[in-house]
Amino acid sequence: MSSEIARILARLARQAKPGGRCWLCLEPSPDPLCPHCLADLPKPGRRCQRCGEPGPDPCRRCLAKPPPFDAVHYGCPYGPPLDALIHSFKYQRQWWLDAALCQPLLAALGGAEMPDCLLPVPLHWSRQLWRGFNQAELIAWQLGKALQLPVRCDLLRRPRRTRSQQGLTRTARLRNLKGAFALKGSPPGHVALVDDVMTTGSTAAALARLLKAAGCHKVQLWCLARA
Ligand SMILES: [Zn+2]
Ligand SMILES: [Zn+2]
């Protein structure tokens, strides 16, 4: 499905929903998450600004060998109650949850440096066809609208279908992602990759390496949650 069609469908779906209620507590609310539920969500807390790992900043791993991306921002640690919403959003085609899921991330982006554009992490075309949309694009559009940042869906490609990174060793993850991504055109100097959940960070690392080799000087990762 083209990006434009997915965007129109998402808007129609939102309009069709009985609005005005919080997705978590179902109380009347002007926003998709009410102020109480938003305040009750677990917060990222003290963490390494470079990779998002909870604890000291910078963390030991980044001191020894920093990742190719420069900063990680996320809405909350992956877990209840947002994990259920993320699951419905991704796997049950409930794309209208995008605005609710972006609220904690937007709140966490208060002090972040704004990039030149947002780059949603691409899906292989076969996966996007099966799912009906790329969840990272929906998130990027929400963020782009709220922060008035351009979203570029034309720069990154995923020409090779990869297996899930879950349960793979570090070496196997790197091998799995080899040649998975491609760049079409030249990127602006400062970009933020957008994804739903950061797990190992190897996807973001592979994309950041590609972008930096093409002249990008700063690559951030913005995601809904970090596992
Ligand atoms: Zn609520
Ligand atoms: Zn770190």
Q: How would you portray this structure in words?
A:
The protein has helices at 3-16, 35-40, 60-64, 82-91, 98-108, 125-131, 135-147, 170-177, 202-213, and strands at residues 71-77, 117-120, 156-157, 182-183, 190-198, 218-226. By secondary structure, it is α/β, with parallel strands linked by helices. The chain has one domain (3-226). Strands 1-6-5-2 form a 4-stranded parallel sheet. Helix 5 crosses helix 7 (135-147). The mean pLDDT is 90. The structure holds zinc ion (2 copies). One zinc ion binds at residues 22, 24-25, 27, 29, 34, 36-37. One zinc ion (ZN) is lined by residues 48, 50-51, 53, 58-59, 61-62.
Which ions and ligands are bound to the chains? zinc ion
Integer-rounded radius of gyration: 17 Å
Q: Spatial order of the strands in the main sheet?
A: 1-6-5-2
- Helix amount: 25-40%
**Shape estimate:** globular
Whole-number count of domains: 1
**Range of strand content:** 5-15%
Order of helices and strands: HHHEHHEHHEHEEHE
* Sequence stretches where pLDDT stays below 50 over 5 or more residues: none
Major pleated sheet: 4 strands, parallel
Q: Report the count of strand segments.
A: 6
CA-to-CA gap between the ends? 29 Å
Number of helices: 9
Mean residue pLDDT: 90
By secondary-structure content and strand pairing, the structural class works out as alpha/beta
